[in-house]
Design brief:
This protein is an alpha/beta fold. Helices cover 39% and strands 22% of the residues. It is built from eight helices and ten strands. It has a five-stranded mixed β-sheet, sandwiched between helices. A five-stranded mixed β-sheet has the order 8-7-6-9-10, sandwiched between helices. Helix 1 (44-57) crosses helix 3. The mean pLDDT is 92.
Amino acid sequence: MLVAIDVGNTQTVIGLFGPGDGPGGSSAELLYHWRVATVASRTADEVALLLDQLFQLQGLDPEESISGIAVASVVPRQRTALREMTQKWFKVDTVIVEPGVRTGMPIHYDNPKEVGADRIADAVAAYERYGGPTIVIDFGTATTFEVVSERGEYLGGVIIPGIEISLEALFSRAALLPRVELVEPRAVLAKNTVESIQSGIIYGFAAQVDGLCRRLEDEVGPCTVVATGGLAGLIGPHSRAIEHQEPWLTLEGLRIIFGRNEKEPR
């Protein structure tokens, strides 16, 4: 079975795919998924211990279960740790999304090496599922927009501060504003400070998404709009542009990229 690991700046998402019958495991099902805090200082041994513990919680033996590992990391120290972990502890086919890895998607960026591995995985998975042109919105530490052409080319994107970063900036600079739970308020027009902040965050980010999607479509034409990331479920229902919510899209992209690079068919 394939382990897909998406290391973000704030959280790390880990998924375990069952074996698939199609080429490159194309029919593989996501059996388990876990979300943990990203700790940049974790060593290779600590990451191996974390995986072992997560597998044991599901009654799985990592040595018997893992036949391949696919990694996307925007944290260089963790990318190094994961590379060391796979060499020391698991010794299975490993694909780390980085320059030189076959993704099957041309990258039309001034410097393709600047495009984050998670952004590429999102784009690959969205095109595989919905075709193109497609806009993928990933609500993570930053909120990113990826645009994929009808022919499956990565055309570029947009990066804006994420929801939690924006909240932290607001609370740290405005002494009288309280920290609030990210839930939908009773109405857009709020009657107290807590709901005013909730309204601004939820409806404000939804409006930002809708506005940027309109501007992107002005340039590339009508697109299918797909949302992913930890906070997609918060904004998606209030966005007029978002058509599909795929919480595990990045993991799916890693599975596809692994299939395009694995040495021997499973």
